[in-house]
Amino acid sequence: MNTLRFNRRQISGLFWDVMDEHSPPSFDLPHADHFDQLRQSADYNTGSLTRDDMADLISIASYFKPKILAEVGTFIGRSTYALAVGSGSDALIYTCDASNDIPLPDMPTDSATVIRNPRSSSVEMFNRMLADGYANRIDLFFIDGRLTEADLILINKLSHERTVLVLDDFEGIEKGVDNAMLLGNQSHLLIYPRTEGKTALLIPVALLQLTAQ
Fold first, then answer.
1. How many whole angstroms separate alpha carbon 124 and alpha carbon 37?
2. Residue 110 · residue 89 · CB < 8 Å
3. What pLDDT digit, counting tens, does each position of 101-151 carry?
4. Can you tell me the distance from the alpha carbon of 79 to that of 35, in angstroms, rounded to the nearest whole number?
5. φ/ψ (deg, to 5) at 44
6. Predicted confidence band at 56 (pLDDT cuts at 50, 70, 90)?
7. What is the dihedral of CA 17, 20, 165, 118, to 10 degrees?
8. Mean pLDDT in the chain?
9. pLDDT of res. 10
10. How far lies 66's CA from each of 42, 88, 173, in Å?
């Protein structure tokens, strides 16, 4: 008997179909100027998410409904905004930026609470989170920065068996690919970005379920 085999591309397509099917019925994304005006406060001015990447991040957070999140790479707050809108007012987001201290853009009133860690590395923020009692409590990580072995140790301490990891810049030889190789293991399934996107995920196998419908 032959086995029934699926590759990552096929499963990734199914994942994004589910995100589209269950995406929030409506949400407004501010004009780019809402965020780009904050670049004037940047000591290190770099790239940021596109509107499509923000929409995907809102859908991901809305679908999984994480209560405690950790974001590496605040910058001008595009990803922070998307995570806060998608996860909703009951959620808490820790976010850090190693290079900048940029104020967050205006957020909707029903979005998550955000705790900024400006001019802090991911290792510094993760250690603060452990000190604040968040061991094994982080539901979702959004990683937009290059991780180290020290980060991996701390992420493992903060995670639980159902923690979702979302990776930006998963393309070519960008940092998202390196991060996936560092974080990936047999307990997680790698979801590739959409054809025109750069957001990848590591989904715990514990979250997968076959349904009758």
1. 28
2. yes
3. 999 988 988 999 999 999 999 999 999 999 999 999 999 999 999 999 999
4. 11
5. -125, 110
6. very high
7. 160
8. 92
9. 94
10. 29, 9, 29
Q: Cα separation of 68 and 76, whole Å?
A: 21
Gap between the Cα atoms of 74 and 209, Å rounded: 33
Tokens of 87: 């996860």
Distance CA 147, CA 160 (A): 19
- Give residue for tokens 């399934």: 189
Alpha helices in 22-142 (DSSP H): 33-36, 51-64, 78-87, 122-131
Provide the sign of the torsion angle of the four alpha carbons 117, 200, 183, 203, taken in this order: positive
CB-CB contact of 44 with 67 (8 Å) = no
Per-residue pLDDT, 70: 98
Q: Given a cut of 80, is residue 68 above it in pLDDT?
A: yes
Instruction: Give 111's DSSP letter.
Output: S
What fold does the segment set 8-21+45-207 form as a domain?
Answer: Rossmann fold (3.40.50)
In this predicted structure, what is the pLDDT of residue 46? Answer: 78
Our CA angle for 147, 148, 154, nearest 5°, is 90
Domain boundaries, the chain: 8-21+45-207
